[in-house]
Specification:
With 509 residues, the protein is an alpha+beta fold. The protein has 15 helices and 15 strands. The chain has helices at 26-31, 44-62, 68-77, 81-90, 147-160, 190-196, 203-207, 220-223, 234-238, 313-322, 366-396, 404-413, 416-432, 440-472, 476-508; strands at 3-5, 12-16, 21-24, 36-39, 96-98, 116-117, 182-186, 228-229, 243-249, 255-262, 265-266, 278-281, 285-288, 332-341, 344-354. Helix 11 runs antiparallel to helix 15 (476-508) and helix 14 packs antiparallel against helix 15. It starts with a strand and ends with a helix.
């Protein structure tokens, strides 16, 4: 029995431009895209996965873009709603959440050996690999969840699920881009946001780039044979079936349990994910950049275009489109992802950053910003070396031999370095603002490094002074250790002060 068609049912959580919050179906969402500020959900993973799902729909409904001309027309004229409407009507029968033949996002022939709770689909409630502090959902008695929540959870699972365990079928694998940070340039409304991420796809690739609803569902035999294949394109990537899922319909409505097992294994990332930033590894080649415990601002440059084409294609595409109307350059960029240790989720995160307006002028400012960050990283060593001397002298109490690991652990619990980066983060955005104005970069280029060094000098000094204050009232061993460490600290700091002075003399001349 067909039930709950996601084209018409209201399941996508959005914030409107007037500040109100509502839920929309796919059809209404595209029609009202200019009125929508953003997709919003408590889970960043859900937000990211819905964006990718909608982009896959647009690629197929719009039959492109397959070149820059189509992309420019779309940017200037907006969505051709009639074309989208006809596409959704054509494939409507593939979007029923409950259906004997084509249940959306599921494998109809999959009959699980045992049922699992709906929480299996959510990162925040899944006790398998991501039990969250203060999460009071009992996964053994989780109750039911609405159909709307179930759809969001299916999309997030297929996009971000981690492998590393047996299932009813075969050993599980990561979703293709599960462990990378994803970048989304944000426009004035949802229509602009989606258009910015519609990177043109080669026509020959597009012919074979089918999302899951335009293909027959994989059989259990195929999924159980450890079959794997490469990616066919962006729509295929954005709807990759990482897991075999079969929802069990509740008579009272909603979803209480489901079947859950391994899906298709991605043979290789032969298609560059347009939302990912990359780095070059000497041995492994191009690798996606992942979230780290430290703030993403310390790798801000990875999101900006460069000659090596390592930045996210969506950012390059947004910057290119904005040259036809510079006032529409994305004001900010949303970055979403998770960090993991093997099959365990360490954390997931969403961060937003402003984009420098210099991008609209075809300026490669990535190297300039990387230079600022390298200076900050390099001068962090002043604190590290000083803290090391303090730790060695304090722990040794004169003559005792100290294990290197003990020294490292002692330094980690000292607040100095964390204070340094915390203070410098706010200063980084102030310095970065010089890149944001239309003419500011050209006008202040020679002064940026000078001001940045002053900020580093202040951050180092304040961090050390706070450490000094905490030790000054301690025992004699701590005071002696501080005295020896200070010699190194102020000696190294004097080099920065000398460089700052040289900049000041240049400005006077």
């Amino acid at each position: 029995m067909k039930k709950y068609n996601i084209i018409g049912e209201k399941w996508i959580p959005v914030r409107m431009l007037d500040g109100s919050y509502i839920a929309l179906g796919i059809g209404d969402l595209f029609i009202r895209a200019k009125e929508i500020a953003a997709i919003e959900d408590p889970s960043p993973l859900v937000v990211a996965s819905i964006h990718r799902f909608l982009l896959a729909l647009l690629y197929r409904a719009l039959e492109g873009p397959t070149d820059n001309d189509q992309a420019k027309t779309l940017f200037m004229e907006g969505f051709p709603n009639k074309k989208i409407e006809l596409y959704l009507e054509k494939w409507k029968d593939r979007f029923w959440l409950f259906d004997e033949k084509y249940p959306f996002g599921q494998i109809p022939s999959f009959k699980p050996k045992s049922s699992r709770a709906w929480t299996t689909l959510t990162a925040e409630h899944n006790a398998d690999n991501a039990k969250v502090l203060f999460d009071h959902v009992n996964v053994l008695k989780a109750g039911k969840v609405t159909e709307a929540k179930a759809i969001c959870a299916i999309l997030a699972t297929q996009t971000f699920v981690l492998g590393g365990g047996n299932s009813d079928l075969v050993y599980t694998c990561d979703a293709p881009s599960a462990t990378a940070m994803m970048v989304f340039p944000l426009g004035e409304n949802l229509e602009e946001t989606l258009i910015f991420s519609l990177v043109p796809e080669n026509r020959e690739i597009f012919k074979f780039d089918l999302p899951i609803w335009e293909r027959e569902p994989e059989s259990v035999e195929i999924l159980n044979s450890r079959n794997e294949r490469g990616l066919n394109g962006f729509a295929d990537l954005y709807t990759w079936r990482s897991r075999a899922i079969r929802l069990e319909e509740s008579f009272e409505g909603g979803v209480e349990s489901l079947g859950f097992a391994s899906g298709m294994k991605c043979k290789s990332l032969n298609v560059i994910d347009p939302m990912l930033a990359y780095r070059i590894d000497d041995k492994l080649g191009r690798l996606p950049i992942r979230f780290k415990e430290r703030g993403l601002w310390r790798d801000f440059d990875c999101m900006l275009p460069d000659s090596l084409k390592l930045a996210p294609l969506v950012i390059e595409h947004a910057a290119w489109l904005s040259r036809f109307d510079p006032k529409r350059l994305p004001k900010s960029v949303m970055v979403v992802g998770q960090s993991n240790t093997k099959a365990t989720v360490d954390f997931w995160r969403m961060e937003c950053f402003a984009l420098p307006k210099a991008l609209a002028k075809e300026k490669f400012i990535r190297s300039n910003i990387r230079n600022l960050l390298n200076i900050a990283e390099s001068n962090q060593k002043i604190l590290w070396e000083s803290c090391k001397i303090f730790a060695v002298n304090l722990l040794s109490r004169g003559n005792r031999n100290i294990d290197k690991e003990d020294i490292r652990n002692f330094i980690k619990q000292m607040p100095c370095i964390q204070l340094y980066w915390s203070a410098l983060e706010a200063k980084f955005y102030q310095t970065l603002s010089l890149f944001f104005s239309e003419s500011g970069f050209d006008e202040f280029e020679d002064k940026i490094e000078h001001e940045w060094l002053i900020n580093i000098d202040d951050a180092l000094t304040n961090a050390w002074n706070q450490h000094k204050s905490s030790v000054s009232l301690g025992d004699i061993w701590g005071i002696r250790a501080l005295s020896k460490a200070e010699n190194t600290f102020y000696s190294r700091l004097s080099v920065i002060k000398k460089t700052i002075k040289e900049y000041e003399l240049k400005e006077i001349k």
